[in-house]
Queue: 2 jobs
Job 1
Amino acid sequence: MLYSEKQERSRRFRLALRMGIPILLLIGVVIFYVFRQNQFNINEVDIVIFVTILFISIYFLFFLINLGQSETYIDRMTGSFNRNYLLEALQKAIANEKKYSIILLRVDNLPLINDHYGIDRGDRLLKVFVHILDEFFQLHGIKEPVIGRYHGGDFIIGLPLAVEESLELMDEFVSTYKDINNIAIEIKYSDVQKDDASDLNRLITYLYDTISQQKSAVSKKREEEKRLDINLLEREIVEAVHSGSLLLHYIPSLNLKKNRIDLFEVGVRLKTRSNGVLPPKKFIPVVNRLGLEKEFDEALFGAICSDAAHVDKAIRFSFNISPFSLRNEGFVESIKSVATKAGVEYGRIIIELFENRAIKDITRYRVILEELRELGIRFALDNFGAPNASFEYIKKLPVDMVQFDRDFTISYNNPKIAALLKGYILACRGMGIETLIKWVDTEEARERFKQLGVDYIQGFIVSNRPLNSEQLIKKYGENG
């Protein structure tokens, strides 16, 4: 029996006592009253009183039953703790245990299972999955693991172990259980050790930030795991954003018509005092969650303009800006101020548009983009052809360049992919939109895309490594 089910059984027993004692007292009052009224000599007033007491008893009974239903500890689908009691149980465990780790475990292909096998079978799989997980922990000496269903196929687990031990345990679980009830399952998980300086909600948010960046559904053995101070990480990210501690790297793109490099895509990392240099997958979720998109994008734009002011004026720069910033009128004014101060022409700036879902208020979005475009700034649609990119963007937004998803390069030998790419390039050319293909690594691929009419290519055939700011200025500076 699951620990959560034991707790639920205990709760129901206590509830039964709470229900039974008042009813016994009421019955005793009724019996006493009847005997006091000459035993069974009952008049109309007695009947009214008796019916009233009976009604109150029935109402009270149903009230307690309903209360019991609403205050249950467990998730009815899986038998694990529900979200409310899960958080309460974890909070108690964190306070009482010296070492404790919290795990976010996700059945990553649950939507696919529901679509293919049906929701009922998917629900049954989750119930079996939880019992297998509990049994696994029991076999490894953890008698009362806290397991709760947080959302969909996401489970939060609390274990009285250090983070290194819990990660080893989860690695073993994932490698052992590849399928349940003859259905293949894919599992992602993220782990963090309790931190007295961080509240539980913050730890869970960190787990979601981490798991959302995992590219593979199959967990890989960690090379190094250390105790995380979530508060320190967040403070240092905020500090780095405010101080502009950005490290830029420039990926060159070759202009196939002019046979020269006159476009760089800009990547960014964040330099922190204690956590070292962070890649975007580490700091962007925190930046977004803390609402620092505008501050970060202003720092990024300023750093790029600072470098651009020292290189050949024919060179353009493309980089990603958060949609939240682009919808902010204050950000438009910041762009004007920074570019003017640095002396960088707007025509050298290409802002990459990238969203995970369709733009809802596309009219409002377009107004702001048009305002920037009137200054001379251009816009590129990044990862075009991926599930997140829509042809609606080209029809309704002022797009000047399309940067194709890498699948068009990797899967070009697929006739359907090749036909789609040819059609897109032809359509872009007809609309006056420049095109860029990434991941071009051979002369054969370079010549192929040149013949198709692609404007720019990017990849090892152009350069085997990006340039940092110093290298960019030294190689492409006005005096270089």
Job 2
Amino acid sequence: MKLKRLTYKLLLIVSAMTCAWAFSPGLANRQDQFRDGEVIGYRGAGKNDAIARLQRRINSGEIKLEHSDSNGYLASVLKQLNIPVSSQGLVFSKTSFQLHRISPNNPRSIFFNDEAYVGWVRGGDLLELAAVDPQFGGVFYMLEQHKTDKPRFVRNDECLQCHTSNATRNVPGFVVRSVYPDERGYPIAPLGSHITNHASPLIERWGGWYVTGKHGEARHAGNLLFSESSNPEKPEQLTGANLTSLAKKFTPTSYLSAHSDIVALMVLEHQTQMHNLITRLNYETKLALNNQKVMDEALQRNGDELSDSTRRRIERATEDLLRYMLFVGETRWQSPISGTTSFAKDFIATAQRDKQGRSLRDLDLQKKLFRYPCSYLIYSEAFDALPKPALDQIYKQLWLALTGQTKDKDVLDIAPEDRKAVLEILRQTKTNLPAYFQRDN
């Protein structure tokens, strides 16, 4: 009888572990399983994000979206979501589900702020939208462009086919991809592609994108068409640098802006993967806690404390997020970078500043992207919504990093004065910090 009970318990444990893997966003191509799973419950997303809130305001009659013959609801949606036109990035590679309309002569516009993204294609029937749900990560929508009394944002989970993959850390998320397009905009597969973020070398960035701005002698893959004989690893072949006008590239009729600001693109690259890492920590924590709960019940254990395996799983995801949010491995450059729009000014307009006037949104642009090495998305709803064990762990590791007590040598390489500045800024601007953040060490 004891052997039967033990066998039954072991079967329960195996079952629990199997369920955890089945619903785990750590496995590629598992969208359907975790979407329906009770642990993550992604199918319940779309109630607490910027687009869902906008839809409720439309339904109640509080606001009415304005329609334009030239770009449909685009300008009005951006206004209601508080997304600046200056954030526009122009991508002409055929890497969207509206690819038949996208070309070097008709690039796709991407606009963004901290919590939402909007895609528009000239002549397209739909606006493509995505928002950050604090609990679930990226949620994707469409909005038909024909004029109607009450426009309706419709969930488009088909986007998860590309937006839940290794490129998004295997959670519903966002990605900036650099490809090498031919004259029609199709990526040339043999030349490869890159998922870009703040650690990517400039030479790998913005293939298939238009880029406006100054950046000295550095080279990138933007503003160019390629052939199979091209070698994008050779800087001398990357001749699209330092453009301040795209007048010779395409006709911007109906576009809200004729620019694709390099500073906006760099912020976009940082932000997309930061969102993904926050979501990944959220998911990993929930899955680890559920796995422990099932095993504790099967073994009739007291589950008041985290098991070693649960703690390690949370710590691994925390470490990845911490290193990224502190810009470990960030690419540096030799000449100052400047954009061609008001994006830099618009971006810092919402900054939370300490008594010395410092903010985590302050841009550097001389040799790195931000002045202070800590992501502004620490203020986001998604960060604050992390499960308590994850939030406890990320704050603990952040405190150790900023006070020089971490064992991570790469984090210790951050200049002490920069770590000190970040700590002081957070003390005065970040709500709900643990009390120990007020100590000097």
